[in-house]
């Protein structure tokens, strides 16, 4: 069996791991901090970055314009700002949105001639170094080579990938995730669960990605059950953060499947948060893959502590704050099925779903 494994991210973890970091000068003398409007400040991570950079004698600029599901145009603007400032490296602080934007900004900054469209297609020089500071426990962006951006011109999200987009250092301090409300805690945890579960059925799954998935799935499900029971304390945050990073390492090698390509439709067109969108489809995904790999599907149910696909759906959908009650007409579902079935992710899996099979799942959950 082929062990296809590569993940060059240095991971620092534990309380104050970022606050106590001093070794910035290895990356240069000028930095741009990339974050969203509130969470970097609210979590305390931005103050820790500003203090650490100042004490290390690094000049910095804060670019705090990153919206959830970041636009490629925002990353382009950030890239121009970083270049004009002369940034040597980028510190991304936030959930998947600021971290993905930080990677794209690092690529734009290193490639002055690159248009927004060319970012996804053209050969380019290596991106600036990125340091990633998590404030959510879900996407795994801190350990993946992907940056997922919203592109209105194609009515969808588009993914950029490259070994230069791996963060140089990922900082996992669970304390920064304490301010996440229940709905977003659940949404991001379910996203991480989808990463590990989808990765288990991809063609590129291998003994290392399987071992990581088998390790993090029970931890994610335990964290989800604790959160549902009202425990959002430090220990649960720690369990969710470490497990979501392991799930990120899984997809860094395997990629994701139709759960993600279909979820993007609900996020782009209906504003459904990323993890909530995935929650609609994960149980049907395991059920579908189980037709080709029944032992693997059985193993996933056991790791999640459920009997079957129905049990898995109950687990990921039982949080009322997630509001998984979207209903759509047949015409809309048909358009979503066309688009999602044509996505690259679909062919990553051990078993390819047809457009009509995908329509059936969409109608069952949203019709
Ligand atoms: P997010 O979009 O980064 O953040 C969602 C919301 O939560 C924002 O309003 C954010 O505020 C807020 N928030 C973040 N941390 C918080 C905290 N500690 N306390 C309170 N509020 C907080 O959410 P996400 O689910 O982490 O990221 C989703 C994005 O990641 C999507 O665009 C998805 O496509 C992408 N993704 C990437 C990968 C990858 O491998 N690169 C994998 C899966 C998903 P602010 O706006 O103020 O920051
Ligand atoms: Zn995801």
Walk me through what this model shows.
With 367 residues, the protein is α/β, with parallel strands linked by helices. The protein is built from 14 helices and eight strands. The strands form two sheets. The protein has a six-stranded parallel beta sheet with strand order 1-8-5-4-2-3, sandwiched between helices. A two-stranded antiparallel ribbon has the order 6-7. Helix 4 (96-110) links the parallel strand 4 (89-94) and strand 5. Helix 8 crosses helix 13 and helix 13 (330-341) packs across helix 14 (355-366). The longest helix has 22 residues, at 207-228. The protein is globular. The mean pLDDT is 97.
Rg is: 20 Å
In total, the number of strands is 8
Beta-strand share of residues? 5-15%
Structural class designation? alpha/beta
Quick summary of this structure?
The protein is of the alpha/beta class and 367 residues long. The chain has helices spanning 39-42, 45-55, 72-85, 96-110, 182-200, 207-228, 234-254, 258-270, 274-279, 282-289, 294-304, 309-317, 330-341, 355-366; strands spanning 10-13, 30-35, 59-63, 89-94, 130-134, 146-151, 156-161, 169-172.
